[in-house]
Amino acid sequence: MDASQPLNKKTPYKRRMTHKRRDQNRAAQKVYRAKWKQRLELLERQVDALQRHHPGSDYGFGA
């Protein structure tokens, strides 16, 4: 070991793992948002379909 290097020097390995975890979290968040966006779009289509079949009713959603 070289005397000029401190004993508790952080290794790049730890930083790489941090970046890997951050990338995994980012990918998981993207999937999560896409899933909820699809669910919201499905609900919006269902509401539109109900309103087309019953144009005078707001089904308690308010107008």
TrEMBL record:
Molecular function, one GO term: DNA-binding transcription factor activity
Top-level lineage group: Eukaryota
InterPro entries membership: bZIP_sf
SUPFAM superfamilies given in the database record: Leucine zipper domain
Biased composition (Basic residues): 11-23
Region (Disordered): 1-31
Protein name (Swiss-Prot/TrEMBL): BZIP domain-containing protein
Organism phylogeny: Eukaryota, Fungi, Dikarya, Ascomycota, Pezizomycotina
